[in-house]
What does this fold into?
Amino acid sequence: MLGMQSLRPVCTTKRVEEDTVDGISLKSLVLGFVAGAIAVVTAHEIINYILHYFDIFPRVPWSMTPAAMTGVPQIVSDAFWGGLWGVLFVLISDKIPGGNLTVKGLIFGILGPAILGVFILVPLITGRFPLFFDFDLQLLGSVLLILAGFGAAMGWIYGLLIART
It folds into this structure.
């Protein structure tokens, strides 16, 4: 007669552990990249379009003009950089104040891509325009609005993606 042990179902699947660094998985980083790229081609460019339409901001949205540094279409370059900002957001989002990922993203969009990126690093690296746009309030306000919207959308999209996986 067979013992009770032989009647137990045998599990043949193995549980795969995710590799993490400080509790952040590669999947989270990829989703952050995707969220940032999507936020650029949607929220970032829609806000840019509205500001451009009303002659408030000179930059053409969804531009296929070759980017100054890389030569790829500007929208592709922007989406790539948006993705990298999304990865950075995932890495530091737990240290950003704010109740949810949308608010954290908004704060991140203002402090990271806008102030650090556009107002300081891009002028220092490329020399294409002066630091803080020489304090032109229309340009400063436009960039802050575009990148606050980008950040909020990125945080929201990242939260949506991470909740579905």
